[in-house]
Every structure is written in structure tokens, then in C-alpha cells.
Amino acid sequence: MGSNNVKLRRGLAGLVAGLIAAIALLVIALPVMMQYQQHITKSYHIKEYATMLEEQKEAEEKGLASCYDPSAGIISINNTLGENVTIVLAYASDGENEEIKCFQPGKIIAPGINKISIADDLGISLDPSRIKILKLVTSRGTIIQPPYCSETAPALVIIAGAALNMLLEEEQAPGGLLAATGSETFAHGLIRKIVNNTLVFINGTLVPTPESTGSGYMPLAFRADLKIEDPNIDLTIERYDVGDYLLMVINTTTSYDYVQSDIGCYNTYCYTFHIRGEHLIYALGYSYVLKYDDSDDNGPLKYTLINNGYDHIVIGVEFNNPEETGLYNGTIYVSKVKVSDVSESDLIAKFFVDKTGKNINATLYVNGNIINATAFYRTYYIKDPIPSIDQFAIYVPVEDLLNVEFGESLWIKTAVTYCSSECVTDDSEWISFTYNPLKLIVDLIYRKYFGS
Amino acid sequence: MNNLRKPISPVLSAVILAATIIAVGVIVLMWISGHSSMVIRQSQIDLIRSEKAAKENLVIVHAIYDADGNKVIIYLINMGHDRVFLGPIRIPEIRSANYEDIFTPGGIWFNPYTVYVNDTDNVFPEMVEFKVGGFPEYLENLDIRDYTQIPEDKREVMRAYSLKPYNTVGYYRVEIPVTLSTGVTYSVEIWSLVPIQNKLYLCKLYATQITT
């Protein structure tokens, strides 16, 4: 009995000793553990804060569509963010002279379309028509670099989530827009046609062809010369750039041409649509290719061209010296995140234009795969028999290749090397571009007139 | 023969046992806490750097090469953090034996560059000088393989320009005296620094490209 008591007391004593020791050790260890926990919590908050700032910047980049009209010296900014954005700094350069203006308080960009005069509103004294680089910095640190507004394009407007510059439907012209006798509509490029009785649906990426020319003998990608009975509506559009996107629904009993014509198209089949005479336009949607200026350094790269397509984007370049003969090598970099090393881009497209040999090549490199690309180019006959090519663009199926979704931002960079007696390389800055595929609006209008 | 060994009091045995466990525990904890205090100190430094980096928003508005003046000009704006310390700048493509690609405020390591306030030619931001927080880190990030190229008395010291927010100063113009070839693309790496416990640590890398 006595031995059992002793054992019990020893056991209890051991237990008490263990408890005391555990409490003592816990008291010593607790501050260390608390410190660790604080670190973990704080790191988490810092990460959240940094992510929030990054998201705010991304949202601002996506929500501000802009372009610059050099003839009027006006920047058009469509603020779709639903809240004011503040411009705190403006930078302008004509290639030789630079000017920077800081604003305190900043210039407010209200929701909706804003017209900003670079002279009156920003106080920039450079000749507006000679400005080549224009940058606006917002209070969140976002840099807006407006491309030139296309020659005949109004300010970019976002319609039904699609980045179209123009959308004419029956809401604007009830019963359709009657293009009377003498009217003409022309389109060339990677376009498709769907017919249902007298209804014709045309959509696709446009490419200029020298077989039809517009003002100044420019190769024509699109012409709408519409004689409208309503005197309030007068519509004449001519476009000469690679990469515009067209969507059109017409109703006509007039005969028209839809013929294969592959001029300006590489590794695909292109078509020309041409109608002369009376036709009724139910819908006309148009997205102008964006042109990002890079002519300040007199290198071979003049513009970077980017536009949304149905479920892809078109990315290209305009060369500086269309009259030159020789070899152009180019690279297009596309990345979901801005990378410091271009070779780490998610997609790299390489192209080659030999004007003299009339030889063209374009290849996509993505995830170790090599894909023969579809490409487009603008050619003239002015140096016949050697075609003078001055625009080159590649069809990039970003949804298929990069799993990019509607509204996501992409970083795009182009580089061109021109070789005659020696080689000169010229590249663009990284351009942030929001992927707004046009399939939503195209499918919507298709279903409206052709059913599912 | 009687066994005369007296049983030890259970209270005494509890105290001895507790003291032994505590002693061993304290020794183990001392070792752990010595190690952990070192880890905590490093993670405190990392935390402060992350916090500064998250708040820092230095914007490279534009970078251009002035061929007439043989200099790279960079326009910078501090978007609101109380102070951003501008440290080493690197143009990796011009690297040669003498580290021509590394530029530091006041030329404390290798070559100098200058920062002007707005479009002035004689107003400069404040320049600070601290000890270097992690010398190996500088060597690694600036790709310095031969540290003997840095004079011994300068190895532990770095300078930085202190840039204030745009709403108090405006913008800054960085001028880097360098001759570049034409028709070539160069990248420009700009490091900001953060002072922690009177030492300057590399904080955040900003980068841009210029084509001459």
C-alpha cells in the first residue's frame, strides 16, 4: 500500500513538474511565436496591398481608351471607369524637343468622353502636328500613351463591351440605311460571307489591295461611298491600313462580287467583296487598327499596329521607308505580364519580308511549338515590278495559344531590322493592350438577322 | 541489513525534475531563439523592404538618349510615397572590364549620374549616404564579380538621391553621361534603396528600354 502511495505521489510530482516546465517554456517561447505570427500577418497584408495597387493600375489602363488627333492637337479620352481620374503630368516630344508639364492640382478626366487640348488644357507649346510621343501620367502612376486617331476615325467608343469605333444599327437608322443607286461598298481581306436569301453578312479583318485604289492611289482595304436619301446622313469612308475589322449586314437584290483575291495575304485565303448600286445596310460595325507611333528615332519601325479581331488580335508594323528595297526581319513579342527579358515573352512571332525577292515568311513560337502564321501586308505597285511593302501584320489567335480571356491585358512589343548595305534595328516600347474580342457583338448581330 | 536509503521527498523530486526540464528547455530555447532572432531580424528587414516596395511608386515617364550631349535622360516621378531613395543605375549592354555599366549617385561606386529637379540645371534633390546593408546582395544584383574594383573604403558605403512626392516637388530629370551606339536597344535598370537601421538595402528594381 505504502509503496503504491509513494509511486502515486512521485507520479503526481512528475506531472506537476512537467506542467510547470511546460508553462515556463511556453512563456519563453510565446513571444517568439507571436513575433512570427505578426510577421506572417503583416506580410500577408503587404502582399494584399501591393496586389490591390497593381489591380487599380490595371483597371485604369483598361478603362481609359484614348487617341491623339495631331491636326487639332486634341487628345480624346473615353473614361469608362465610372469615376474621375487625375492627370498629374504630361510629356510631349516632337523627336527633337521635349516638354513636361506637372499639374497641381491635377487635371480631372471625368467619366465619359473627354476632349483635352494639349495647348490650352495641358500648356504644351510644341507644334501639335509635329508631336510624336505623348504620355499622360495619372495620380495612380498609370501612363496613358494615346496612339494617333485614325485618319477618319472618331474617338474610340466602347459599345456593348466591344472596342468598335463605329456601330451603325437600326437604332440609328430605323429600317436600315438605304444606300441609293450610285452607292458603292468595297472590302478586301480575310473576310467571310454568309447569305440568306437577300441578306448578306460580311465580317473579318481587312487588308489593302493595290487592285483597287482610293485617294492618292492608296491600296484600298475598305470603301463605303453611300448616297443616302436622307440629307442628314452622308457617309464616305476610305481605309488603307492593314488590320481594320469590318462587320456588315446588308439586304440587297443588286448583284455583287465576292471573289478570292489573295494579294496582301500570307498562308490564308482572302476575298474581295464589292457591290455597286442600291443596297440596304442593316448594320455596319468598324474597328480601326490602332497605330502606335515610333517614328521619332528615324529607325525602320514607324508604327506598331494592333487591333482586336473576332477571337484573336492582329499585330503588325509599318516600315519607315516604303520606297526602299531590301530585307526586313521583324519580331513581335506578346506577353501576359511585362517582362524585362523579351525572350521570356509568352508568344514570339518572327517575320521576314524580302521586297526584292517578293518573299514573305511568318512564324509563331509558343510553348516550344512552332506554328506557321497567317499574315497580312500592304503592297503598292508604285515600284513595279518590285512590290513596295510598308505594312506587315500577323494574325495572333491569343485565346487558343495563350488562354487569354475577354478584358485581359496583354503587353506587346515589336522590333524591326532593316538590312540593305548594313542592318539597323528599331523596336517599340512595351504597349499595354486590352483584349476585347469582337465575337460577342458579331455573334449578337448575326443571331439578330440569321437566327442561331 | 536494513536498507537505510531514505526515499527522496516527492516535492523535492518534482522541483528537481522541473528544474532539469526547464534548464534543458532554456538551453534548447536559447539556441532556437538565437537562431530565430537572427531569422526574425532578417525577416524584419525583408518586411520593411516589402512594405516600402509595395508603397513605392516611382514612374519612369520617359527615357531617351541625347546623342548630341552623349547622355541618357530619364524623367522620373514619385507618385506619393514619402521619400524614395534612388540608388544604382545599370545599363547592362555597355558592360566592359571596368564596370562602365554601373552608375551611382556621386559616383561612389564606379561612374556618377546626376538628378535635377524639374527642368532646372542647378537644383538637385538631397543626397544621403549610409552603410551598405548587404554587400553580397549588391554584388549579385549589380552583377559585380570582381569586388576589388571598388575601393576598400567605399565597399561598405552607398549614396542615394532622396526623391520627394510629385505634389511637393514635381518631376526629376536623371542624366547619365554615357556614349551609346546608334540603332541599338539598351535596357536601363534603376534600383531604389531603403534605409533600415542606418544601412541601405536594395529595395525595388525599375526597368525601361531605349533605342538609340
Structural classification of chain B: alpha+beta
Number of helices of chain B: 2
Q: Total strand count of chain A, please?
A: 34
**Gross geometry of chain B:** elongated
Determine the N-to-C terminus distance of chain B.
106 Å
Q: Count of helices of chain A?
A: 3
| Oligomer status | heterodimer
Strands of the widest sheet of chain B, in order across it, are 3-7-6-10-9
How would a textbook summarize the main sheet of chain B?
Answer: 5 strands, mixed, barrel
Distance between the termini of chain A: 94 Å
Strand content of chain B: 35-45%
- Could you estimate the helical fraction of the residues of chain B in percent? 25-40%
| Average of per-residue pLDDT values of chain A | 84
Report on the biggest sheet of chain A: 10 strands, antiparallel
Radius of gyration of chain B: 27 Å
Could you walk me through the main structural features you see in this protein, from its secondary elements to its overall organization?
With 452 residues, chain A is α+β, with helices and mostly antiparallel strands. Helix content of chain A is 17%, strand content 46%. Chain A has helices spanning 2-63, 398-402, 439-450, and strands at 64-69, 74-79, 85-93, 98-109, 112-117, 133-138, 143-144, 157-159, 162-164, 166-168, 177-179, 184-196, 199-206, 209-213, 219-220, 222-226, 235-239, 245-251, 256-260, 265-266, 271-276, 279-287, 290-293, 301-308, 313-319, 327-335, 347-354, 359-366, 369-372, 375-380, 388-396, 409-419, 423-427, 431-434. In chain A, strands 10, 11, 12, 13, 16, 17, 18, 19, 21 and 22 form a ten-stranded antiparallel β-sheet that branches. In chain A, strands 26, 27, 28, 29, 32, 33 and 34 form a seven-stranded antiparallel β-sheet that branches. The longest helix of chain A is centred in the N-terminal third of the chain and has 62 residues, at 2-63. The model of chain A is unreliable at 151-161 (pLDDT under 50). Chain B is of the alpha+beta class and 212 residues long. Chain B has one domain (47-211). Chain B is 25% helix and 38% strand. Chain B contains two helices and ten strands; from the N terminus they run αββββββαββββ. Chain B has helices spanning 10-55, 135-141, and strands at residues 58-66, 71-78, 84-90, 102-105, 111-117, 126-132, 157-163, 172-177, 185-196, 199-211. Chain B has a five-stranded mixed beta barrel with strand order 3-7-6-10-9. The chains are: A alpha+beta (452), B alpha+beta (212). At the A-B interface, α1, β3, β4, β6 and β33 of A face α1, β1, β9 and β10 of B.
